[in-house]
Amino acid sequence: MRTSLVTMLSIAFILLFLITGVALSQTWTAGTSTLYADPTTTNVGIGTSDLDGSPAIGKLTIKGTTNDGTTNIIVGRDSDESNVFSVNSDGKITGSALSTVEYITNDTNEVQISSSMFPITSSSNTSYHAGGYHVIRPVINTGATQAGHEMGIYTEVLRNNYNSSADENGTLVSLYGQQLIYGHNNTNTSAIPITTNIYGMRLYPYYKAGTIANCYDLFIASGATGGTITNRYAIYQQSSAANNYFAGNVGIGTTSPRTKLDVIDSYGIYNRSSSGGGIFFDDTDVTDSDIPISYIKGDNGTLRFFRANRNASTGLTTGSIESLCIDSSGNVGIGTTTPDYKVDVLGTIRAQEVKVASGWSDFVFDDNYNLPSLTQVESYIEENKHLPDIPSAKEIQEGGLSMAEMMAKQMQKIEELTLYVIEQNKKIEKLENKLAQLGMQE
Questions:
Q1: Cα torsion for 144, 146, 152, 158, to the nearest 10°?
Q2: What is the C-alpha separation between 289 and 318, in angstroms, rounded?
Q3: Burial 66-89 (b: 16+ CB within 10 A, else e)
Q4: Who's near 195: CB < 8 A, 6+ residues apart?
Q5: Do 343 and 386 share a structural domain?
Q6: Could you report the per-residue pLDDT of 359-418, keeping only the tens digit for each?
Q7: 188 is a domain residue
Q8: CA–CA distances in Å: residue 387 to residues 383, 400, 405, 415
Q9: Could you say which DSSP state residue 204 is in?
Q10: Which of 296, 328, 350 is the last residue of a domain?
């Protein structure tokens, strides 16, 4: 009790000295503790009389430790006799309401300020532990139109910031604006922790009232320019096992996407892989073992369309059958993977109507057309076993049938046949006239 009274009187003298500037006695001693005051600098020291040395001394300098040898400053005690606020001899700030905050001045360390929190929860009640908690709740009165900026956290990590020295040319391995490390880090293999959800970063916008013109949950600005960035990635996902989920529409090259994926670019979507990029389609959202799907793949300039089955559990595609392809020449193949014509179909075609643009055979009726005689036709048939100008059965089997050409050839033969009929009819009429003259016609 006596020691506390002496200490209080000492502090009162110090305050009187600081307020009035009167040069009182420079030293006060209470037990083993000594209090010093420098009348020239008006600095006060506890446990040290070096109050005007270099580097500069603050208005209050404390040196030494408490009885346990670990604490320099203790401010207050709570109901459990824990330090509400204390500064330890190793530079850490601790307290019953604080985690450990450490200020490190050694330039071999990677951080300047670090904090640690080790909460232990054994009950099932709802509890929250926050390593850092920031609250800004501004009130912008009516009439204020340019109220500046409100920032929950503002961080600058800049090399050579406002430094005009030309010697700042060293190589830094990594520079982080912010790094978040989260998850499970158990060194005891017998422990099997369970966490329902882990959020590396969770953004929770509020818009309960009023109007927000633009809400950017994540905004990556173009930044200041002048130097060189070899490769810039706005978002870089290293793990191929991580999925991405977007409930709303996604726009690439547009701020107003109209569908789940809306791309505006001169190239559209460029999909590539060593085995050919693909786009998969299915109209189901189930977990059946086999789901019928369709997919498109690129293959060295050829676009191939497949139907197959996809295992919902493994994601593997089986039973792929190529249904259609479009090669680099623009040929379309249905039932064939190597089309040789603009439309090459290996199978049966059913159509309600087919229109073929082609030449026709009306030249048969020209005056200068050389119509072969039936005797010539007969000789040709006996020798070749097919009509003149018509491909043989062997040619059709080997090279196929040209529909337009064949229809024109058939029309040519029909028109030739018509001329033969007309000619034969004229001959019949002449014979009938002769018979009539001889009185032999009935």
A1: -160
A2: 11
A3: eeeeebbeeeeeeeeeebebbbbe
A4: 183, 184
A5: no
A6: 888 999 999 999 999 999 999 999 999 999 999 999 989 888 888 889 999 999 999 999
A7: no
A8: 10, 17, 15, 14
A9: -
A10: 350
Using an 8 Å Cβ cutoff, are 25 and 17 in contact? no
Read off the tokens for 177: 């604006």
Spatial CB neighbours of 290, under 8 Å, sequence gap ≥ 6? 309, 310, 311, 312, 318
Number of domains into which the chain is organized:
3
**Could you write out the DSSP letters of every residue in 149-189?**
---S------TTTT---TT-----S---S-----S-----T
C-alpha 436 chain-centroid distance:
99
Which of 350, 385, 407 is the C-terminal boundary of a domain?
A: 350
Contact 321, 346 (CB under 8 A): no
**Cα(19)–Cα(237) distance, rounded to whole angstroms?**
61
How many residues comprise the chain?
Answer: 442
Rounded to two decimals, what is the model's pTM?
0.53
pLDDT digits (tens, 9 = 90+) for 226-263: 888 899 888 899 988 888 899 999 998 898 999 888 88
CA distances from 427 to 376, 416, 420 (A): 19, 17, 11
End-to-end alpha carbon distance in the chain:
164
Please give the residue range of the domain that contains residue 304.
275-350
